[in-house]
Amino acid sequence: MEQVITSRKNPLLQQVRKLLSSRKAREEAGLYAADGIKLLAEAVRYCPGLDTVILSEGVEAELPENVRLIRVPEDVMASVSPMETPQGALFLCRLPEKKAFVPTPGMLLLDGIQDPGNLGTILRTADALDIPAALLDGCADPYSHKVVRASMGAVFRVQPVLTTWEEVSEKCRQAGIPVGVTALSPRAKDLRQAELRTMAVVIGSEGRGVRQEILDSADAELIIPMNPHCESLNAAVAAAIVLWQMKQ
User: Fold this and answer.
1) 223 with 184: CB under 8 angstroms?
2) What mean pLDDT comes out for the span 147-160?
3) What angle do CA 203, 207, 209 make, to 5 degrees?
4) pLDDT value, residue 186
5) CA 127 to CA 220: how far, in whole Å?
6) How high does pLDDT run on average in the chain?
7) Which residues in 95-229 belong to E strands, given as ranges?
8) What are the φ/ψ torsions at residue 135 (nearest 5 degrees)?
9) 156 or 234: whose pLDDT is higher?
10) How far is CA 220 from the centre of its chain?
11) What sections of the chain are H helices per DSSP?
12) How far is CA 150 from CA 25, 32, 104, 167, in A?
């Protein structure tokens, strides 16, 4: 049974606005918001926590029976949607319970990836290549609507694991998994000559690269060979190259 909302000040719509803009609000409510018809279809297929769907008049979607459906006029949707041209679909999902970090040979570790587009693209690529990825301190919220959109639904299919460098360092050491870091240094090894399938590889943030404390304690430094006049690569592109090499 669907419910019709016509007021922009409706409490549910006010909550959606908060969920779209605030990580704290998401964590307090145990919910996150996303937008788009294609993403909704992915959530219907893969996200067990799909909770509430808000559709503009005239927009249709096949939903599970237990999902709450709200219908709103187009102008009300436009007042809530974060998109300049709303597709007519917003939805809320329950945040999953925190998943424990389990070290795995041939996994990706993300350190301080703050750009939502980069983080979502990396999660999407890791999902496509079936490589586990974990987020260290300082990364963007994987459940912000920008990351969810850039991931093209990867966060529905593979739950992002949040951890700390301290936990990663200790558990990788116990498991005998060497940690490699991507770094622009004279001693860095061409990643084509490294056994990435046996390692956990850290990709650093867009601005500062991998944190010094991780560089200091890593087992290997790795470099992506490139034209000498190029200083660096976009974090998502660098991650894609590392992920591809892990499969070789």
Assistant:
1) yes
2) 95
3) 35
4) 65
5) 25
6) 92
7) 107-110, 133-135, 161-162, 179-182, 189-190, 200-203, 220-223
8) -105, 120
9) 156
10) 26
11) 11-21, 23-29, 37-46, 74-80, 116-128, 145-150, 154-157, 165-175, 212-217, 235-246
12) 21, 15, 25, 28
